Amino acid sequence: MQKQYYAIIDIGSNTMRLVIYLREKGGRLKEVENVKAVARLRTFLETDNTLNSAGIKRLIATLQSFQDVLATYELQEVVCVATATIRQAENQEEILIQVEKQTTMTIRILSEEEEAYYGYLAVVNSTSIETGITVDIGGGSTEVTYFENRELIESHSFPFGALTLKEFFAKEIPTNQELLALRNYLTEQFATLPWLRNREVPLIAIGGSARNLVQIDQNLKEYPLAGLHQYKMYDTDIIQVSNYLTSLKPDKLPKVEGLSKDRADIIIPAIEVFHSLYKMMQADCFILSRKGLRDGVFYEQLSKEMGSILFPNVLEDSIQELINDFDLDPKQILHVQYLTRILFDYLKENGLLHLTKKDWTLLKRASYLCHLGDYIDAESSAQHTFYLLANRTIDGLMHKDRLQLALIASYKNKTVFKQFIKPYKKWFLKEEQKKLRHLGALLKFSYCLDATKRQVVKQITCDNHNDSLTITLHCDGDAKPEEYQSEKQKKHVEKAIKKDVELKFVL
């Protein structure tokens, strides 16, 4: 089957970006190319709100450079959208004509409502957040939305962005008076929307300034996990980053780890937007979404085929992508899930382990991806499984949830588990660590019961004695390999339940 590539060009006030996606088997889009150009079109707007000839020239030159990249792909579709600067330009008709004449591209100018809507659409289709407020700071505008039960309730576009707000400051590092003036202005602006006040829901941020804020925070904390999408911060973290940046000398600002040089002069006003909004809505946390306007545009395209603008199963779809990418066996996965559920329910109902509904959710997710590392090297499968799951973005999972999944799915033994969890020990209480170990041991044991991927063990029955547990495995055919592997693995289950385990394989 021929690969299907799609491209989008996003003409922003600060940056222009070309993103090329590959459509996956399941229908979702995977980013394969991301080209950025710092055009700063906003700075070419004259006082009469016309984009001057130098600005038009830069716009066209950047689009022509993007065309060279586009020429290397066989594309199903190319979409070119523009936001605040082109939207606000009085000579936009002239701009569109010039662009089409010199590049053959047709620019679609997004309205304020559309820009806000696509940001919302990207968030709800790439996270599991049911209710929240999104904020997307561009160079010339800031969009906010409120969604409840994944449905868009309110949206608004403010006529200020990171480039316009920097005008509050005489220099890159503001004085206390300048900061206070900006904060008062932002508070007044956000107060005009009653639906923002005291929401006590997550604040989900989109865009380059939000990414830079998160990258700086991760570097300051020496954060051990890879990935930005669905990274969580709190108001104290935002304040700490702001205080750190405002304490620097101007020449040190562009050298900050995690901060793009082209954002050094606009990052502080952008952070003030996040913090002012956080306070206004009394947010319970700040979350970054790496998916934004560009993704939202294509989610809308996909929704026409699906019949719904909302992907019903964000996390499940993301896990299915991993199953496809690493060529995992769906038949084996479902069978191991079935055997694991029998053991899980028995241990729970007979008080051999304290297990909850949430534990089964964790265990079920991990069961999909238990042998993912085999794709790279069977001998060091556990190490590869852990690394891949801990460091790959999984839409619908926050970072700590992703780490739990990696620890359970990669379980080999207690020693290896301790190696994996060492950089993250402060993330979990001792009891939580023990629970993850027990769930990992149970899953590893269940996979041993289908070691040859033949589904030879058809049913399990258990008999609980005072000092032992007898597990009878009802088989359809020879189960010697399964018997050998499970006898090796059962000691981890024995340690968890504090009882000897006797295995009986019967035909």
TrEMBL record:
Domain Ppx/GppA phosphatase N-terminal: from-to ranges: 23-304
GO biological process terms held by the UniProt record: regulation of transcription by RNA polymerase II
UniProt xrefs under InterPro entries: ATPase_NBD, GppA/Ppx_hydrolase, Ppx_GppA_C, Ppx_GppA_N
UniProt cross-references to CDD domains, sorted A to Z: ASKHA_NBD_HpPPX-GppA-like
SUPFAM superfamilies found in the cross-reference section: Actin-like ATPase domain, HD-domain/PDEase-like
Ranges of residues in domain Ppx/GppA phosphatase C-terminal: 316-475
Pfam families hit by this protein: Ppx-GppA, Ppx-GppA_III
Family note: Belongs to the GppA/Ppx family.
Family annotation (PANTHER family): EXOPOLYPHOSPHATASE, RETROGRADE REGULATION PROTEIN 2
Name of the protein described by the UniProt record: Exopolyphosphatase
Species name: Gracilibacillus thailandensis
Organismal lineage: Bacteria, Bacillati, Bacillota, Bacilli, Bacillales
